[in-house]
Structures are given as C-alpha cells and as structure tokens.
Amino acid sequence: MTSKEELMRELAEEVWSCRKCRLGSLRKNAVVGEGSLEAELFLVGEAPGRVEDETGRPFVGAAGRLLDRLLADIGLRREDVYIGNILKCRPPGNRRPRADEVEACTPYLERQLAIIQPRVIAPMGNSAAGYLLKRFGYEAPSISRVHGRCFEAEAPWGRVLLFPLYHPAAALYAKELLRILEDDFRVLGGILRRLRGAP
Ligand code: SF4
Ligand code: URA
C-alpha cells in the first residue's frame, strides 16, 4: 500500500466508528468518499442521502447519476476524481447539516484534502461552498452568486483553485439550473485541461 492508501484507510476506519455527533448513531453506513487518491479534482457534496447511507458510497442515487453524466461530458470518469462530502453520515430526512455537525465532521474532510492534495476543489451546493470558501478566507454568499467562478487559495500543499458549483440534486428538477451546471462543468473541464498543459 502507498502511504496515501494507508492514511486513507486509517481515516476510513476512524469514520466508520465515529460518534462525534448525533448522526453517528442514526446511520446505516458512514460514507467516507471514493475515487483516485491522485485526483487533480476533489468534488465535495453535502452529506449522504438515503441510497448513500444504504450503500456506504457517495453520490450513487439520482444526483449521483447526473454527476456521472456531467463528468463524462468533460471526459472524466468517477475513478479519475475524488468525491467526498462535508458530513460522512446521513442527516435524518436529508435535512441540512447543522453547524455543530459540520464542525465535528470537517476535520475528516481536511485530512482527505491533505492526503489527496488536489489542484482544484469543487464544492457543490451551499453547504460545501460555504464551508470551503470560508475555510480559505473568502466570504460565502449564496451559491447562486459564486457558482462557476474561480477562487484562488493557498493550501498547505500549494496553490488550489476553488470552483463552486450548484449541487446536482438542485439541477435534477430545474432545467434552468441544469443548463447552468452543464456550462459550469464545461468551464471546469477547460480549467483542468489548462492545468495539465493541454491547449
Ligand atoms: Fe462522525 Fe461525521 Fe458521522 Fe458525525 S457525521 S458521527 S462527525 S463521521
Ligand atoms: N448528495 C450529497 O451531497 N452527497 C451525496 O453523497 C449524495 C447526495
């Protein structure tokens, strides 16, 4: 095992037995995250939903299928990126994460970021964008005002770009949001190509 794999394995074991907030006793499965430990792009959602809680995998319900399609449109497979969430356990009825839950859980996300050391972090939706923009010293107004924009930041492992997106679940039933999300993904695809030095 590489040291990245070892660190992620240790982290997963901690998460699976974590009871740092009330959600720990309500879950069927904790959802650590999945994808490439060498990913340049780290996508961050809000929290597991019903199917994620049942399977232990991130973004495998309807929103996940849309996310897979949006990635495919820019030439990426789920295995090429890393997909995680702000919270690792499902809030009852998919309610929004509470501040104390975010505070208890985000040290795990921070460790995942430090292990993977992505060049682009794409928070999806208000919870993830709010946390990550503030984390890197930005104000965090509503996602409707920050989606599709690049925010440069200095992470412990080097420069990163924050690129907030609408949450795919929000775009499932709103055609207008879906078009915006598709446009933002195209921009994201261009950013990743430039980072790789492609024309
Ligand atoms: Fe622990 Fe996070 Fe689950 Fe709360 S949501 S029990 S902090 S893993
Ligand atoms: N919505 C999220 O924010 N995360 C998931 O993993 C699934 C749905």
Give the helix/strand layout.
Layout: H1 3-16, E1 34-35, E2 41-45, H2 50-55, H3 62-73, E3 82-85, H4 99-116, E4 120-123, H5 126-135, H6 143-146, E5 151-155, E6 158-162, H7 168-171, H8 175-195
Parallel strand pairs: 2-3, 2-4, 4-6
Antiparallel strand pairs: 1-3, 5-6
Helix pairs in contact: 1-4
Bound molecules: iron/sulfur cluster (SF4) and uracil.
Summed up, what is this model?
By secondary structure, the chain is α/β, with parallel strands linked by helices. It has helices spanning about 5-15, 50-55, 60-75, 100-115, 125-135, 145, 170, 175-195, and strands spanning about 35, 40-45, 80-85, 120-125, 150-155, 160.
Distance between the termini: 35 Å
Number of strands: 6
Structural class, from secondary structure content?
alpha/beta
Question: CATH superfamily, please?
Answer: Uracil-DNA glycosylase-like domain
What order do the strands of the largest sheet run in, or round the barrel if closed? 1-3-2-4-6-5
Tell me the CATH topology.
Uracil-DNA Glycosylase, subunit E
Bound heterogens, unique: iron/sulfur cluster, uracil
- CATH class category name: Alpha Beta
The run of helices and strands is HEEHHEHEHHEEHH
Query: How many alpha or pi helices?
Result: 8
For the biggest sheet, the summary is: 6 strands, mixed
**Domain module tally:** 1
